[in-house]
Amino acid sequence: MEMLSEHTVEGWAERYVLTGRHVFFASYEAFFHIIDSMFNQHAKWLEKCKTDVKWRASISSLNLLVTSTVWRQDHNGFTHQDPGFLDVVTNKSALVTRIYLPPDANCLLSTADHCLRSVDYVNVIVADKHLHLQYLDMDAAVRHCQKGIGIWPWASSDQGSEPDVVIASAGDVVTLEALAATAILREKFPDLKIRFINVVDLFRLQPATEHPHGLTDRDFDSLFTTDRPVIFNFHGYPALVHKLAYRRANHENMHVRGYKEKGSISTPLGLTILNQVDRFNLAIDVIDRVPRLKALGAHVKDWLHDQIVENLAYANEYGIDKPEIRYWKWPWS
Question: What is the C-alpha to C-alpha distance for residues 221 and 182, in angstroms, rounded to an integer?
């Protein structure tokens, strides 16, 4: 069923789950805000059913597929760039809200399977429509999604030692850029110890005392360390990660990159550069944050600045990103 009226479709979806059936409601990310208040009311209703009206039967979850996302608006531009619905969802009860940001197609399949089997939640899945790299086979994707957060050993170089820096990501496009930054750093600084973490379940960042999916402090500290710089590339507004993780021991060393209300009709890389979630700015950030690289990495940092200038100039002239950007793949696969 399709209609260009988010509030009408949201009404259909809510009533449909009340009949005992299942639903996916897909819409442009920027226009999920149209049903903010409807989502709020449904989430409040679910929360009261769980706590105060327990005789009510369970219903299948309301599954919201957030797509046509902020990072792929090559034609619609600035008006279609707003990932703020996630912020709205985090304001509602932890008993009923779930947010998932699968990094690839297999993780999306695993996430969707989980959400369709669940009851009494509002599940928000953020997934772009464009082609993306596949990082995990199906078995690995299921394991990763079940954990909700995890180290990707194949992208990391800190095995058997403490990392110099943690690079983390949550979201499909920003994961690609974070991996590309990691590849650059591993090539330029072979002895740099990098730990790469991917987050599928956003509420894993919150303490276990605040959300059922939250990590314990011990588990969080084990992943993110208590004293190393963390460069976190996030799909949405950076403040949301800080909101969820502000009580963590290493929060002061967590530097979140995300959408900064910088947008236009531009190439994919151009948009990420505008908001400093691109591979070059992320690598520069690591050089600035790791003490021993501040002087050692001067030449690489200068080269990275050149890459930003050259790639923007190419995009402005040809209207697309360079082939090495468009067809980039993890170099050690």
Answer: 21
Q: Which helix or strand (DSSP H or E) is residue 28 part of?
A: strand 23-28
3-state SS class at 283: helix
For the beta carbon of residue 225, count every other beta carbon within 10 angstroms.
19
Query: Each residue of 95-112: pLDDT tens digit?
Result: 999 999 999 999 999 999
Render 244-255 in DSSP notation, one character per residue: HHTTSTTGGGEE
Q: What span, in angstroms and rounded, lies between the C-alpha atoms of 61 and 65?
A: 12
Question: DSSP labels for 147-212?
Answer: HSEEE-GGG---TTS--SEEEEEESHHHHHHHHHHHHHHHHH-TT--EEEEEESBGGGGSBTTT-T
Comparing C-alpha atoms, which of 128, 162, 127 is closest to residue 145? 127
Structure tokens at 93: 């009860």
Tokens describing residue 333: 């696969």
pLDDT tens-digit readout, 278-325: 999 999 999 999 999 989 999 999 999 999 999 999 999 999 999 999
Chain-centroid distance of CA 311 in Å reads 24
Residues 313 and 305: their CA atoms lie apart, in Å, by 13
The answer to whether residues 263 and 78 touch, using CB atoms and an 8 Å cutoff, is yes
- Which tokens in the block code for residue 105? 């197609």
